[in-house]
Amino acid sequence: MYIVQSGRLRVYSTEADGSTITLKEVKGGEAICSLLSFTDYLTGQPSVFKTVSAQAMEESSVLQLPVSAFQDVFDKHPDALVRAIQIIMVRLQRVTFLALHQYLGLSAELVKSFPAKHHGGSTSPIKLRMREHAFVQKPINVNDPMDCATPPTTPLSEGKRRVKDEKDYQQLLQVGIDGFVKLLGLEDQSLLDGNTFFQVLEAFVVIKFFVIGHIEVRELIPGTYIMKEDAMKDVALVYVISGTLCVSQRAASKNEDVQMFLAHSGELVGGLAVLTGEPSFFTVRSRHTTCVAMLSKSTFYS
Fold it and tell me: How far, in Å, are 12, 47, 139, 158, 297 from residue 198 at the CA level?
């Protein structure tokens, strides 16, 4: 970070043909800082200023503050780091993403495509299946008085079903925890542990297995929405255990969604909204029968 104490600097970019374009003038009391380069350094990926240069237009006095000095402060005050990252990501979303989307009509063009990489989320020994009916239909012989006296549906053993479901979801939960531990760089899963309980919300739509206040596992039928564009509801960090999520955005010129990318098993979505605290920039829904683990925004920050 460079703070101009006196004088005047010119900030410019250089075109491919060698010509320069002045971006702004920086006067006394103002600063020059590449927020993305700042983030690169803090995340252990230092990079040089690739596109922007600064030059003194007159005799000037400039104070140079190395990013390492901020690192020392952030080590002692983690909350300050959270705030700094939030400011950077909010600017990136509002100034860059929203401007390109709303004024230039870009959507899928904003995302760089990579070959799909499966990180092993689908290697879980569990074969995902939507919940079966709690009752099994039994063929009835109207000539048999015993059958006529028997109700048309016979309940399965709810002790047996519940134990099987809870065992399956315990395993799914562990797959989700392992994914978050790996992708978030945690030392172990202790921060994600908590009391657990099992709850069926809607048969054939969403089945949840909760870790209270920490991780929630959802099993979704195709087309189920997890997050919607411009909405704050359900903002979370989502890890795909199995299946595929479709991430889309409403086209600026017409009332339809444009697919931006697909998230496969072992991948995360929802990070931008979690970091910025802004409404979701994308709409996220299941493309196939999909199982996801979700980490709420409040848990992520804590």
Answer: 58, 47, 32, 14, 22
Q: Which tokens in the block code for residue 283? A: 């709409």
The partner residues of 292 in beta bridges, in order of sequence, read 218, 240
Q: How far is 154 from 135, CA to CA, in rounded Å?
A: 6
DSSP 3-state assignment of 21? Answer: strand
Task: Tally Cβ neighbours within 10 Å of residue 275.
Answer: 20
| 3-class SS of residue 215 | strand
Q: Is residue 274 within a helix (H) or strand (E), and if so which, with residue range?
A: helix 271-276
Domains in the chain (CATH in brackets) are 2-110 (2.60.120.10), 121-301 (2.60.120.10)
pTM: 0.67
Separation CA 206–CA 169 (nearest Å):
13
Structure tokens at 54: 């600064």
Tell me the pLDDT tens digit for each residue of 4-42: 999 999 999 888 888 899 999 999 999 998 887 888 888
Report which of 263, 179, 166, 256 is spatially closest to residue 215, judged by C-alpha positions.
179
DSSP state of 92: I
Return phi, psi of residue 23, to 5°.
-95, -45
